[in-house]
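Intended use. Records like the one below are meant for learning the mapping from a protein sequence to its folded structure. Do not use them to infer anything beyond what is encoded.
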Amino acid sequence: MMKWLVALFALVAFGECFHKIPLIKGKTARQDLQEKGLWEQYRREHPYNPMAKFYLSGAEPMTNDADLSYYGVISIGNPPQSFSVIFDTGSSNLWIPSVYCNSQACNNHRKFNPSQSSSFKWGNQALSIQYGTGSMTGYLGIDTVEVGGISVANQVFGLSQTEAPFMAHMAADGILGLAFQSIASDNVVPVFDNMVKQNLVSQQMFSVYLSGNSDQGSEVIFGGVDSSHYTGQVTWIPLTSATYWQIKMDSVTINGQTVACAGGCQAIIDTGTSLIVGPSNDINNMNSWVGATTNQYGEATVNCQNVQSMPDVTFTLNGHAFTVPASAYVSQSSYGCNTGFGAGGQQLWILGDVFIREYYAIFDTQSQYIGLAKSV
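Structure written out for the chain above:
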């Protein structure tokens, strides 16, 4: 049985009931492509565009980042059919592959079969979600979705008919969006919103813990917070927009010098993007300050022997400083060392998994705040 078929469970702690779903950090698409000797060809054919998911249009866009890697298991239908999904705070729709899709991406993953679920109903709309390197198209359906021991009735979700080629290399089968309904394709009510509406969680919040360099311990907690995952106080930051989980960032500094986001900018806390992404000039400046060299594919490489002497990078969010050390923003593999700073070409910043591994993130949908605390 594959390692991502992990048990879903619920527990009671600190006097309140909340539900956890374990996340697995599996092999990334990039690692899979590298092992097959296809990574450089892939990057030539599909230039890196992590901002693609934030281009608003009639359909809800998604990212083309080939390093999406944290995923957990959900089930859909009666009897339940299991799927691994990326829990993505940068999008709002749930979709999974279906038996109506015969692309390589779908054939490499589990497919939902509506005819095998006694509770399935078809929706009345088609679904199209744009990627930077292609698109996912399909249809809307309605069924029971179980997440972390929570059974959500009448959840609208997407069944893919076509998928972007890079999805063939992803560990997860699909995406479960955790942003707001205002950006959902076809105005679908997101899964967590339905948890709240159906009184399935004790608090209108969920939280995310991402462990570093380990396949164990990462999790999404629906309906509460697990204080064992962080130390110190939680810093609460108000949203500037209830679309994505968007907040104000004041600056990015290194050794006390402002190196990016001078004069302030907007940032998004996004579990569905692996890197910290910002405008090209700012990211290039950051990479230069830490001693990185950017190759033709936009990847910033450093000498692995220099990591211990590289400077911290501090992100000031709504007046509060959050520091990320080199040990956190540099990733090392058999192919060398890369920084976790990616150029996106737009003014919107993405604080992705590189940041969230350092700071436990609490997403409060009722008050529209993000809480951040130092992960342990």
